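Renewal narrative, Specific Aim 1. Our central claim is that a sequence can be written position by position from structural information alone. The example that follows is taken directly from our test logs and has not been curated for this report. It begins with the structure tokens describing the chain, in the order in which they were read.
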């Protein structure tokens, strides 16, 4: 029985995940299913805390690495705020800023 619900910040974020390469998207969907069932704090290597209530899903496939930034909201909700395919070792600060701004709107 699912104990959490997962949603996207907006249709653009959902479309970004949908556009990921098949292997990376499949990895994300497996992790998302486990998060819905057991809660959002899975820990490494699946999820990681980014500080101040922001977390990332660490999806990996043969085609590359995807990151989906999320937070939790009232009512046992997991909200995917922003999604990227990583091209560098470090997460670009601009992408973290986007996720943190959206987090403020979801969690006032």
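The sequence written for that structure reads:
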């Amino acid at each position: 029985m699912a104990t959490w619900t997962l949603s996207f910040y907006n249709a653009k974020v959902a479309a970004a995940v949908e556009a990921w390469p098949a292997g990376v998207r499949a990895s994300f969907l497996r992790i998302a299913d486990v998060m819905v069932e057991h809660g959002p704090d899975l820990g490494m290597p699946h999820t990681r805390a980014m500080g101040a209530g922001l977390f990332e899903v660490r999806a990996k496939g043969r085609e590359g690495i995807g990151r989906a930034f999320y937070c939790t909201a009232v009512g046992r909700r997991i909200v995917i705020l922003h999604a990227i395919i990583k091209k560098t070792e470090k997460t670009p600060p601009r992408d973290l800023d986007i996720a943190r701004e959206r987090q403020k709107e979801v969690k006032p």
